[in-house]
Design a protein that fits this description.
This protein is of the alpha+beta class. It has one domain (21-155). It has helices spanning 41-54, 84-89, 117-121, 129-136, and strands at residues 13-15, 26-28, 35-38, 56-61, 67-68, 77-82, 97-99, 102-104, 125-127, 143-145, 153-155. A hairpin with a 6-residue loop joins strand 2 (26-28) and strand 3 (35-38).
């Protein structure tokens, strides 16, 4: 059979305000809240960490360890840090995840001078203590992102549905 039929051979879905799970994830809709039976939480975390290793962004710091725009300041240390924003856009986690507003830990020596690029690239993300203090004071809230298994598919409009009516289409007058 050469024809592809919507709903039989393929489907198109719309997701509103959420990101669906990757194709190999298996969601368990019998649980409340919905979670997944595959992959394990450990594997989900490994997938996320692999993303951080794969995708990097250029960052810069002054000699005193303050972040600066790389294009506007010539006296800085530049280094590649993992692209946390990009990896947070990919739905690696089945369950809801709460974020503490992490920041890259810019390393300095005992005199407060920033360490070389190689050391910066071996650093890690830490919780933003200023943000956590604001949360404690009730001035800010942590961001919670729904898990990918709670993302519901919305069906496409009626014209994608199987119809017993044969559409003649429009005459080709080219």
């Amino acid at each position: 059979e050469r024809n592809l039929t919507y709903g039989v051979h393929y489907q198109i879905s719309v997701y509103v305000d959420c990101k669906p799970c990757p194709a190999r994830y298996i969601c368990d809709y019998t649980q409340n809240p919905v979670t997944c039976s595959y992959p394990s939480v450990t594997q989900q975390r490994e997938n996320f960490n692999d993303c951080l290793k794969r995708y990097k962004q250029l960052s810069c710091a002054t000699v005193n360890g303050l972040r600066v725009d790389c294009s506007k300041n010539s006296s800085h240390v530049s280094f590649l840090e993992p692209d946390l924003y990009k990896c947070n856009q990919i739905p690696y986690f089945c369950d809801a995840t709460t974020y503490n507003n992490s920041v890259w830990n810019i390393l300095t020596d005992l005199n407060g001078r920033v360490l070389p690029s190689e050391d910066q690239e071996n650093s890690y993300y830490v919780d933003n203590t200023e943000f956590l203090n604001e949360v404690s004071a009730g001035l800010a809230t942590k961001q919670t992102v729904s898990g990918c298994c709670s993302c519901e598919r919305h069906w496409m409009p009626y014209y994608f549905q199987d119809s017993s009516e044969v559409e003649t289409g429009y005459p080709d007058n080219k």
